[in-house]
Amino acid sequence: MVFTLAAPALAEGVLAEAPLTAPAAPAEGTDGRRMEGEPITSLEDLEQAVSESSGTYGSPSTIQLGKDITLTEPLTLEGNHYAILELNGHTLTAAKGQRHLEVSGTLTIQDTSEGAAGKLDGNSNGGGVVVKGGTVILKSGAIADCKQSAGNGGGVCVEDSGTFKLIDGTIENCTALNGGGVYAGTGGWLSMEGSAIKNCTATGSGGGVYSGHYFFMEGGAIENCKAAQGGGVYNEGGTCTMQNSAAIERCTATKAGGGVYVAAGKKVELLNTPQVKDNTVDGERDNIALAPGAQVQDRGLDEGASIGISLHGEGWEDDAVILVDSSGNPISKENIPAYVTDDTTGEKLTSTSAADLPKKSVTPPPTPPTPDRAIALDKTELALEPGQTAKLKATLTPADATYKYIFWESSDEAIATVSDSGV
């Protein structure tokens, strides 16, 4: 029996030798076929239902889980396809080191069962959703425990001009380089209603959300998230809007912007009664941190709002204005709302001129990790009899790659298997 070998999907540095074991007998197939409309109880049926989804706008296909299922590779929903993934109280677990879903069509994830306990589980080793120019809506249920150590968007990563809408679900305990909960690059659209992003972490920027284009937070809460910059939200794009009672609370950062970090020249728009409070950097108040040239726009704040502002970094112009009205005009000192405070004092903001306000220094953001470029195995073919084992050795270039992880897996366990430890 001859095996053709390929390098693992993820590896860094020189790795320990890993035995490869051929099974004694081929695995048996799955008997029977699922009837149309029945809940899905096998991986084979789930893969088929997603790949063959033919739903249209206004009449999406419904894919309903009938039991917990563990994936072996990401599910892919192609463009122009519309589908609803009904979790039905069950857990969909990602394959090690891989995403749950790659979506270029339109997908609604929901759980209409009592308790809505269904979730996409990354098992702290991969998982989450990639939106590739399509639209994903999390209507109910959860995306939890997803991890992308060297990638962006632990729970959801929005690429290109994709859209992600968080209506009434939860993203929690997710980790990534940027956007621990949700990441949207340039062109990505994010919106959040009555929902929660909590306990998410970014080693770089945006513990809860990293927005590279547009983020509309109509309600819900981002809480207990952390990052180097922008513990709750890192606004690198054009506009971040908060309205109604949207809340960013109890988030932390090690550099700047425990709650929100607004990059140079960008702005955050506020209306109604948003709550940006109890966020810190090294134990000190730091709710909305403005980089040079950034602004807060009052588009109709009401009594009951809670907003703290601080200025960070060097390069502020003396005539820079940090607080403007809905028309973009500077708000006079006399008209500064009582619920807009200076984070350095905890008291009402006394001026909207950057020249009159203290500045906090900002440590430069962490250096991005060195990515892996190539992986090589010491053998490309092996001839094994059933029950025999062999050892493989993988080498990564460059040798200074930041993350030292490897995930071994077999593309066909009916032919050869490999354990989590490489045995």
Task: Provide keyphrases for this structure.
21-stranded parallel beta sheet, mainly beta, eleven-stranded parallel beta sheet
Task: Give a topology summary.
Elements: E1 2-4, E2 18-21, H1 43-51, E3 61-64, E4 69-70, E5 75-77, E6 82-86, E7 91-93, E8 101-103, E9 106-110, E10 119-121, E11 129-132, E12 135-138, E13 142-144, E14 147-152, E15 156-159, E16 163-166, E17 170-172, E18 175-178, E19 182-184, E20 189-192, E21 196-198, E22 201-202, E23 209-211, E24 214-217, E25 221-223, E26 226-229, E27 233-235, E28 239-242, E29 247-249, E30 252-256, E31 260-262, E32 267-272, E33 275-277, E34 280-281, E35 284-285, E36 288-290, E37 295-301, E38 306-312, E39 323-324, E40 340-342, E41 359-360, E42 374-377, E43 381-383, E44 389-392, E45 394-397
Parallel strand pairs: 3-6, 4-7, 5-8, 6-9, 7-10, 8-11, 9-12, 10-13, 11-15, 12-16, 13-17, 14-18, 15-19, 16-20, 17-21, 18-22, 19-23, 20-24, 21-25, 23-27, 24-28, 25-29, 26-30, 27-31, 28-32, 29-33, 30-34, 31-36, 32-37, 33-38, 36-38, 37-39, 38-40, 38-41
Antiparallel strand pairs: 1-43, 2-44, 34-35, 42-45
